């Protein structure tokens, strides 16, 4: 059996910071409210496209993997819900920028769960023997959607990208267990208005607005991610005590803490960077993976659980053997 080893990782963090104090200059909010309700202190704003962010993260991941010729790559899979262009897909622009001329290129939209969905897909293609090398990216320019007159959503989101390189390997590492799902019944409780072909083609539409029922999403995110973690542990025949690191989607520090207390992991096993970047949707997990490696939280042989929840309402959890 082949495995899909993670051989490289990289990120792209846009340089421009927007702090809570900056936001309080343009909307009726303050640092105290944002920090206590969400854990966010600042977020990054990109003036470059989602494809540009994805390209930089992917290049860093390829460098980390020691891959000099991107034409060795068979697949560029880009998780995003803020594509630079709908047609052609954004992954094709990344493929072009990387010069990964032999690679298939495809976008995956499962909102905040998108990176784990994409990781599952690329891993399965490698395990089946169909391909040998893939770059899996989560990249978002979420602030493009933000209506800066809405304080409820305006404070939550940020821009950025993270990526991993997967390579076929005989070593039993990489994604060893995964559960993904979608509770579509209540998909309307988190959506973006005025986007897609449901808008009237012949009438001018207003700006896109990110609308959500915060408290309902909060409860469902905690329940969804906790259940998904339990399910994936059962799938791989492990207990939570076998887990070294939890990489949760970074939507709200209180959501992360609620999941942590339900699964009963110590503080030093949980990766948190929401204070610096806010919610970067599909990019939170690959950025967090990257920083967990950089800061020594993820080490060789670490057993990692990652979980996400997002629009759809999609959810996912993955067990990764480092
Ligand atoms: N600054 C100051 N006050 C604010 C702000 C703000 N930025 N935003 C809302 N308020 C006010 C509201 O108007 C409300 O005032 P009122 O009581 O006078 O009506 C009050 O604060 C409380 O608002 P709530 O919505 O009840 O606040 P809550 O404690 O639920 O926190 C939050 C809101 C942070 C959005 C929380 O519900 C949450 O994190 N939900 C889940 C995350 C989420 O939905 N993310 C969207 C993406 S989905 C995902 O990534 C999983």
Care to describe what's here?
It is a single chain. The protein has 322 residues and is α/β, with parallel strands linked by helices. The chain folds into 2 domains: 3-171, Thiolase/Chalcone synthase (Peroxisomal Thiolase, Chain A, domain 1, 3-Layer(aba) Sandwich), CATH 3.40.47; 176-321, Thiolase/Chalcone synthase (Peroxisomal Thiolase, Chain A, domain 1, 3-Layer(aba) Sandwich), CATH 3.40.47. It is built from 10 helices and 13 strands. It has helices at 20-26, 31-38, 50-65, 90-98, 114-127, 151-154, 214-236, 253-263, 274-277, 284-294; strands spanning 3-12, 16-19, 42-45, 75-79, 104-108, 133-141, 159-169, 174-182, 190-192, 210-212, 245-248, 303-310, 314-321. It has a 5-stranded mixed sheet, with helices on both faces. The protein has a 4-stranded mixed sheet with strand order 8-13-12-11, with helices on both faces. α3 (50-65) packs across α4 (90-98) and α7 runs parallel beside α8. It is globular and about 55 Å long. The two termini are 17 Å apart. It binds acetyl coenzyme *A. Acetyl coenzyme *A is lined by residues 29, 33-34, 37-38, 112, 151-152, 155-156, 190, 212, 214-215, 217-218, 221, 251-252, 279, 309-310. Residues 29, 33-34, 37-38, 112, 151-152, 155-156, 190, 212, 214-215, 217-218, 221, 251-252, 279, 309-310 line the site of acetyl coenzyme *A (ACO). Pathway: Lipid metabolism; fatty acid biosynthesis. It comes from Pseudoalteromonas spongiae.
